Task: structure prediction
Amino acid sequence: MNKKVPMRQCVGCKEMKSKKELLRIIKTAENEILLDVTGKKNGRGAYLCPNVECLAQAVKSKGLERSLKTAMPREVIENLEKEIDTVAER
Result:
């Protein structure tokens, strides 16, 4: 029997991809917004393709704000951009 691959939708480009291909962004109980590299941290999660274009699209369409049920301050978005750049280079 082959295992079912967990699929998630990118909040930027709205494409369905396997969970492993996407980055998880979470809002913790303390209202911090972080990039969850392990994919296992507690918190409300949203998934994004590992590129800055999808992040920009998610911010523009307010998809990220809707998924995390919180406003996205400019500095948080800038931090995410830097983190995504770092992850994408690996």
User: Anything to note?
Assistant: The chain has a mean pLDDT of 90. Helices lie at 52-60, 63-68, 74-89. The first strand starts at residue 7 and ends at 9. Strands lie at 7-9, 16-18, 23-27, 33-36, 44-48.
